[in-house]
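Lab meeting prep.
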Amino acid sequence: MANIKRGASLLAPLQQLPTSGARATEVFTTDEGTFLAVPQLARDVAGEPPYMNGGDSDIEAPIYRWHEGRFVEHETLALAGGEDLEYFEIGGRKFLAAAGIRTGKGPYDLDTEAVIYERVSRSWVTLQKFPVFAAKQWFAFSFDSRHFLALAQGVTVDGVVPKHPRESCVFEWNGERFEPFQTFDGQWGYNWAFVSFGGEHYLAYADHVSGSSVQRWDGEKFAPLQVFAENGGRAFRFFEAGGTLWMLHANLLKHTTLYRLDGAQFVEVDVLYGAGGRELCLIDGKHGRYLALVCFITGTPKVPVVVPQSLIFQWQDDRFELVDEFATSAATDAASFIADGQRYLVVSNCLSEDIRFRTDSTLYRFDG
């Protein structure tokens, strides 16, 4: 990985948000305003020793509203073991899909329900529930007037036998509800990414133990195109530059890597970072394209090492150059948005240095 090309910092911290085990950031705008939803994994339990998979997971997800240059508390959703909230719209209807990995305070139950809410009369009303196992992420995408919702889920834990379906899968909207469309074989799903390019549709799936993959639409379903046969898959992102399709892949255990579509395969171009990368946020700034690489932990869940910073790269000459770093604390996600003509970045932090859940997430002004 290259050294930082030092210059003025691209980020100015503006606000600390009092989160607990924050796992994702979802910024969305409706006719009611601009909002930030933060699923939370757990809260600390007094007297309990530090453990990143401990705590009280019967918790809620705060939803903040943008007001005069900052986020203010607005409402909450009950979301035990919160991992993800995904906002999307279909035909003017507004939805929020919620995923949680577990319930309880220990022992925990990984068989839960994932809920899709619809916004009705300024309230989130349950539309549909799904039996899930260790749910991690919902991801909405559309093409050819079809609307899909992908679920990444599953985990492998000794002695735990799922009662609910454990495979990651894709659902399709039938006009009123989501119905099963396709199932994937992964055992520990984390994340999805989608892009349409050159008349083709690509869906990437990140899995921690079963190998991550890129799927291509064959006219009826998504078919395997390329497999990344290594443990630790966390996130993918696609983008176009210079008439070419590029892909980023964050592997928590090994590396964050840039790929280019070369004919029918994604070919490795550069390794941006080593172990610890968890999420990828592409930012269209005033001076070009940037990448926020969100860094989480190294080590193991029983002996984790909190990564104390995340990184900013800038796209230059078909490469991402490292241009800035900023303090984070086991960061899990980032979202970029524009309000009142100014670009911002909000980052969720999951753990303190001493492995406690009560850790602020941060709103930054982005000056790139």
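Slide two material, second protein:
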Amino acid sequence: MSVTAVLRSEWMKIRSLRSLVVCLLSGLAATAGITALASATYGDNASDGADFDPVFFSFFGLNFGQIAAICFGVLAVAGEYSGGSRTIRVWLAAVPRRGLYYGCKLAVVGGSALVVGLVTGFTSLLGGQALLGEHGVGLGAPGAPRAAVGCGLYLALITVLAAGVGAVLRSAVGAIGVLTPLVCFLSPVLGDGPVTRFLPDRAGQQILHTAPEGTLGAWTGLAVLVAWAGVAVWGGWLALRRRDA
């Protein structure tokens, strides 16, 4: 099969599986919805602090939306190993070149997450700032466009990271069980520290701040998340290449 044909088939799989569509759109709904609720409810109180960052506050719901991104990435890959590996065997029979199959799957999964993530970023930013009232800033404020685009990049990279881990573990439950604490809970539990700032969520979310503080800047933090995703993708490729379907 050609690259175009494999890409088309992967896109059809995402569109036809309700669980994947729900996960993909849930990230948008959770991030934008919870951000809007927080901005309307707590915006005035939050803005009383001297270190209040209205741009970063526009992504208050991202910590909930990224759970949907993790589920989407994991299910898109690990879901094909359920049911005694019958699904993955069918697809590898149709696309014997495993590198082509894996690359096209990651491209479609990551690309879909990027598109929805960009919509999420701009929706959360514009909606959150509007609900902050006099404390809000416009899209042209310093760091605002970068943060909106960065939200899309962040969600896409988290999705690719999840897809790679899903390929390594071949279990949706196992992959989600590993990634949810790593991405969502470890940073708040450990607090600030030399190790915490290099965790996927803490590093990647530097791009959402108007003026990032600490060792990592906006783009260097995102580069750390790229490294996490790259290691996961590489591990997934080794697992797919060396193991039987």
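Talking points for slide two:
The mean pLDDT is 89.
The CA atoms of residues 39 and 132 lie 6 Å apart.
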